[in-house]
Specification:
alpha/beta; Rossmann fold; three-stranded parallel β-sheet; elongated
């Protein structure tokens, strides 16, 4: 059997579903750790930062530091920085993506400043409305 050194594992739907731990997930993660298989948790949900997801996992008794978690918000903010430098971003997202933009020194615009935007980034936004559209 081939030995794997690392695994990329989606969070919502693989480790938990909403606020419920998926049956067997904690045990599977423990087996990976016992075999020295590194785990990078990934998520396409940009509503929280890696620190927020680390706390959520801790609530399930799963230890994972922020450096072991990659969110779509962090990846998107980093991509824009590497591709275009510090930019003016209009986020139609929740606070996780906005926090990464601030950390990477992007300018986070309000909805009223939309004309100044270099980029409009759309992610999960449970407060989406016609004004934002």
């Amino acid at each position: 059997m081939k030995k794997y050194r690392a695994i990329l594992l989606d969070l919502d739907g693989c480790v938990y579903q909403g606020d419920k731990l998926i049956s067997g997930a904690r045990e599977a993660l423990q087996k990976f750790k016992e075999k020295n298989i590194k785990i990078l948790f990934i998520t396409n949900n940009s509503s929280m930062t890696a620190e927020g997801y680390s706390r959520k996992l801790k609530n399930f008794n799963i230890e994972a530091g922020p450096e072991e978690i990659l969110t779509s918000g962090e990846a998107t903010s980093l991509f824009i920085l590497q591709d275009s430098g510090r930019s003016k971003i209009l986020p139609i997202t929740e606070k996780g993506f906005k926090e990464y933009c601030k950390r990477m020194k992007h300018t986070v615009l309000s909805i009223n400043e939309w004309r100044k935007a270099d980029f409009v980034v759309v992610g999960l936004d449970r407060r989406f409305n016609y004004l934002k559209l």
